[in-house]
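Handout, tutorial session.
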Amino acid sequence: MQMDDPGAPQTVQINTECAFEHILSVRGDLSDGGWEAGLEFVSQKVQSKSGPLPLVNYDSAGPPTLDKGMANAATMRKMIGKRLDYQIGANGKVRRNIDLTNFVSRIGRTDEHIMEGWITAQALLQYCDLAHDLPDNPVKTGDHWPIRTIYPIGAYGMIEMQAEYTFKGFEQHDGRDCVRLEYSGKTAATPLKWVSGIFIGFDAGDVSGVEWFDVRHGMLVEKLMTYQIAGRIYTRGREAHCAFQQTVDMRIENLTVSKELMPPANWLRGLALLFVDGVVWLFLR
């Protein structure tokens, strides 16, 4: 984030890096063709700097005594080893979060104002809903379809995105046979929100990205997204302007297929690839 304050001698630039590791698991079948699934929190790292000055240094693998500037570190640590249960529909899309209330109660969060935007159904299920951006109808190479979704941006709340996806074709990605999907669009403006002693709001911005869908296993294996938005900050009777850019890279690092729960190459059971007159059609049934 880059911030211009008329009262400050120079522009302030803050760089933040986050790395969260999870285990996604299919725990059983449902009678309607869906699955019981779980998301386990394995590790978390957050580092933030203003130029060379460190602001935040948090690593769940290290001792709490080394945490710096992470007001919600205690609550974040309580998430490690916990599992959030949810359901996947027969079309491969998350349809219901089972135990968000119980999950929050197991964490015992006390800093709710700090964790707002971090522990919500929308924020947590972004790691689970791997089929959200896929079309509901057959498409072929070169086809487009619209997507509207809401992404969490931590303590700043939620941001709405409307984009157009394009089925670009097939390619090798990390040793996998994948479908490549590209998208671009806009993010909506957000109202002013009180966050840690300041009011902050964002203007409409731009978003773009690439996704890779593993054909053999029938699942999204990586999603790369970048969005850029400008914002306004009000504090102590002064107004400052900020430019916010975030790059998100979500990927499946290791994939283990259990034959007891699902047949190989059919993780979502909804993927269909049809070869008709030399054209490849991709859709979820």
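The second record follows below. Compare its token runs with those of the first.
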Amino acid sequence: MSPNQVSGNEFLYWINNNDLSCMSFTGSSYTWCNGRRGLHRIHRRLDKALCNGVCLDESDSCTYQVLVKNCSDHSAILSSHASNSLRKVSNFRFFSMWLQDTSCPKLIRDSLANKVVGCPMFILQHKLKRLKIEFRDWNKKSFGNVHNAVLLKQGLLLGIQHNIETTSFPDIDGLLC
């Protein structure tokens, strides 16, 4: 047996011994490209994501997304685990693009200026909770549904990447990373 076969068998033994399974994926079929041009370009799916039985039991689905390839020869992958839990925790994210809008400081001032009665921690919690709701509504009104816009652009990029993977463009191959 060659050293590559021994290493491959050891890896398969380790996967089976730890009850790991390959996760299903979305996005490009390939995770690696040799970076060569024309007929010498090779695409392969070298990178995969694994999860164990506990992860599968505690999640509705375990998947990964092959992201649009950047300047590396490997595409990044992003795992996703949909929980069985009914309770959804909504984290607050402050987007730096909000600071570019001149109405943002006024929204913050007006929201925090509202009077709330109670102990200091209750007041802070109540004001921040209200500010989060006001940010969410203001964001949709001012910027539209950014999440859907990003998904749309990612779909367009994925289509372009798929076209590049399936078609040879000798005149522009040198422009790619």
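Points raised in discussion: The mean pLDDT is 81.
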